[in-house]
Write a structure and sequence with these properties.
Shape: globular
Number of helices: 1
Strand order of the largest sheet: 2-1-3-4
Largest sheet: 4 strands, antiparallel
Number of strands: 4
Structural class: alpha+beta
Strand content: over 45%
Distance between the termini: 30 Å
Order of helices and strands: EEHEE
């Protein structure tokens, strides 16, 4: 299993603030929700969870929704 399969990134004002990689989806999803609670109040915050695939990356979740 790929240790860098699930990627989480927090941006604010279009600039990367922090990111992390996880091997398993439940852990990445837990971190995604945790980041929303911890960092979601930052002006212009955007949090995106993606999965690395053979064809590139696909977005699994983004906050705020529709962003």
């Amino acid at each position: 299993m790929d240790d860098d399969r699930f990627h989480l990134i927090l941006t604010a004002g279009g600039k990367p603030m922090m990111h992390g990689w996880w091997r398993v989806q439940p852990t990445a999803e837990h971190q995604y929700l945790s980041w929303i609670g911890s960092w979601g109040s930052i002006d212009g915050a955007r949090i995106v969870l993606t999965e690395r695939t053979d064809d590139g990356e696909r977005v699994l979740a983004s906050w705020p929704q529709g962003s």
